[in-house]
Specification:
Blueprint: H1 2-21, H2 42-54, H3 68-73, E1 78-81, H4 89-94, H5 103-126, H6 134-159, H7 184-197, H8 210-224, H9 227-240, E2 269-273, E3 304-307, H10 309-314, E4 336-338, E5 348-350, H11 360-363, E6 364-365, H12 385-388, E7 392-393, H13 400-404, E8 408-413, E9 417-420, E10 424-428, H14 429-442, H15 446-460, E11 468-469, E12 472-473, H16 492-506, H17 513-519, H18 522-536, H19 560-566
Antiparallel strand pairs: 1-3, 2-10, 4-5, 6-7, 8-9, 11-12
Helix pairs in contact: 2-5, 2-6, 5-6, 6-7, 6-8, 7-8, 8-9, 9-14, 14-15, 14-16, 15-16, 17-18
């Protein structure tokens, strides 16, 4: 009886409280939220557009569009690094035994649809706003379609083109859509709208412009395998394109200009994700991918994404200063040696008997070579040599100068994770040039293709890109252009090999490698990865258990949790069907 009386009093009290507040109490917006009606104006549309851009930076390690796991590690540019127990979910991916329950693939899937949802809300809201300035409306419309095309393209790259298409015409909060259509045409429709509506220049350098949309379309068409359609677009972008802040596209002389916060949004950058040293916007997606720590290393965490032995040795050159297209770079001697019996502080050292492309020490951190302005790497910069080898990621890692000036730091996320204000280029001129070279080689325009390859190599050979110690080259650097007498100028197969090798070297550690291998064909991909595994076994024992990736698996499995959550339609058919190679 005592309990019932208390309950009765409580119920009466709640009724009185609600009555005293009036009915409006039930319709008050929660604190920290924005009422949808308040967004139906120019300022609101701008906020919603920025919110869609923000999806590029609000990501987990599996979701980041820089794809260090899917494009870099899975493609053989790097191994997982760190130690075997940390982020052990990546071990199965590293060994090519990925399961549909893998958390990283679920992160990527969620990111794709979170981004699409943000775009869809913005487009739906803009349709309800009258009398927006025409130039503003066209630009924001173009930016939103550009971003949705980018998000879905990331989904295609990882999961293949048979994923659900959800656009602004679907207003359900939890839409149920089958993955039974190829969404490439939908994505290309989006990017065509972006090309139509976007201006050549923008009021902010981080906004997508007309030329970024064209570059993205070319990239999508290349991944689709439609080189004929991509070819004229690539030529147009290279010949006529300008950045959002009006700079004519051109290769920077200094390779470092593309990976420093001081020189962001430069003339080689077509579309870059904008980062800052703010706690919430310092590139959390790559926060694991810094040297492990100790003795003045940058980041201080966490030792992941260590370049592979196969990648490092790919930079070996012959006496002529050219890449070893016959794959003999996998033979001894190697670019770095481990002097186990040495008493030196850093017993792993450069093998100066081996001539190498200078881009090796721009993309890969090696013991004995200055690590940007941090000095020589020390042993404890590597977390576990037996698990990750003895190379360090380098391109995206900030300088000591940037840290000292507050543009980077070792505790910018959750109180522990490193990050920086360095923008990272999602679309770059160097990428477009080499894609165009592919198209030319495919059409038997071999001399023109090799001229573009030599353009990339000429930049790499400039004095500013030679790392030095006390005024002398830090290693045995040697790089030359392909002479017109080389077989690549007369033999199509050799030309294609040269172009593909140049992409491997120029874009190393930029999260592109596996996507290149996959679009070049399943058989090619499977063979290249099998050779990679075989080589890595010489250095890292764990690769003895690695599987050979099936030639049919040019995509990852759909996340099992998403399949179960979506369930079945009224006819008992599942909304999400796993791709055939993964069933």
């Amino acid at each position: 009886m005592k309990y019932k009386n208390k309950l009765y009093i409580l119920v009466i009290s709640v009724i009185v409280l609600l009555g005293s507040c009036g009915e409006d109490f039930l319709y008050k917006d929660p604190q920290g939220s924005i009422n949808h009606e308040a967004l139906k104006n120019q300022t609101g549309i701008d906020l919603l557009t920025v919110n869609a851009y923000a999806n590029l930076t609000e990501n987990g390690w599996g979701a980041t569009p820089f794809n260090w796991t899917f494009g870099g590690m899975y493609g053989g540019d790097a191994n997982k690094g760190s130690d075997a127990n940390d982020q052990s979910v990546l071990n199965e991916m590293e060994m090519y035994s990925t399961l549909p329950t893998n958390g990283y693939i679920n992160e990527k899937y969620q990111w794709v649809y979170k981004g699409a949802k943000r775009v869809n809300i913005a487009l739906q809201t803009m349709a309800e706003v009258e009398e927006l300035p025409e130039a503003f409306q066209k630009s924001r419309n173009g930016e939103l379609y550009f971003l949705r095309a980018l998000f879905y393209f990331e989904g295609i790259k990882v999961f293949g083109p048979y994923i659900p298409w959800v656009d602004e015409t679907i207003t359900d909060n939890d839409p149920k859509v089958h993955n039974d259509i190829d969404i490439y045409p939908k994505v290309i429709e989006d990017i065509d709208i972006a090309i139509r509506d976007l201006p050549a220049t923008q009021d902010s350098p981080g906004r997508a412009n007309h030329w970024a949309a064209k570059a993205l379309k070319a990239k999508i068409l290349m991944h689709k395998g439609d080189l004929a359609a991509a070819k004229p677009i690539l030529k147009d972008v290279i010949d006529n394109g300008v950045t959002s802040n009006g700079l004519k596209y051109a290769l920077e002389d200094d390779l470092s200009a593309n990976f420093e916060s001081y020189r962001d949004n430069g003339r080689e950058s077509i579309f870059a994700v904008q980062f800052s040293s703010d706690y919430n916007n310092a590139n959390s997606g790559l926060s694991l991918c810094y040297p492990h720590g100790g003795d003045g290393s940058p980041g201080g965490c966490c030792g992941f994404y260590q370049p592979s032995n196969e990648l490092a040795n790919s930079f070996k050159v012959g006496a002529d200063g050219l890449p070893l297209l016959d794959n003999s770079y996998r033979s001894v001697p190697y670019v770095t040696v481990r002097n186990i019996s040495s008493d030196e502080k850093a017993p792993i050292s450069v093998n100066n008997n081996v001539p190498v492309d200078p881009r090796l020490d721009f993309a890969v951190g090696r013991f004995g070579i200055p690590y940007k302005d941090w000095g020589l790497p020390q042993n404890n910069w590597v977390r576990d040599v037996a698990n990750g080898g003895y190379f360090l990621p380098k391109k995206h890692v900030y300088t000591k100068k940037e840290q000292d000036e507050g543009l980077a730091g070792g505790a910018l996320h959750d109180g522990w994770a490193p990050g920086s204000a360095i923008n990272l280029q999602y679309l770059s001129l160097r990428d477009m040039i080499l894609l165009y070279a592919e198209c030319l080689a495919n059409d038997n325009e071999l001399a023109a293709a090799m001229d573009l390859v030599n353009q990339i190599r000429t930049r790499a050979a400039l004095e500013v890109n030679i790392i030095k110690i006390d005024g002398a080259p830090a290693a045995n650097y040697k790089i030359e252009n392909y002479p017109s007498t080389h077989a690549a100028f007369s033999d199509k197969e050799t030309c294609i090999k040269a172009v593909r090798m140049e992409r491997k070297l120029e874009l190393a550690m930029e999260g592109q490698r596996w996507f290149d291998l996959a679009r070049w064909g399943g058989e090619y991909m499977s063979k290249e990865l099998a050779d990679y595994i075989q080589f890595e076994r010489n250095f890292l024992a764990k690769f003895a258990t690695a599987s050979t990736l099936s030639s049919a698996r040019t995509m990852f499995p759909l996340p099992e949790g998403q399949i179960q959550t979506m369930g079945e339609d009224e006819s008992g058919n599942p909304y999400l069907v796993q791709p055939a190679p993964w069933r």
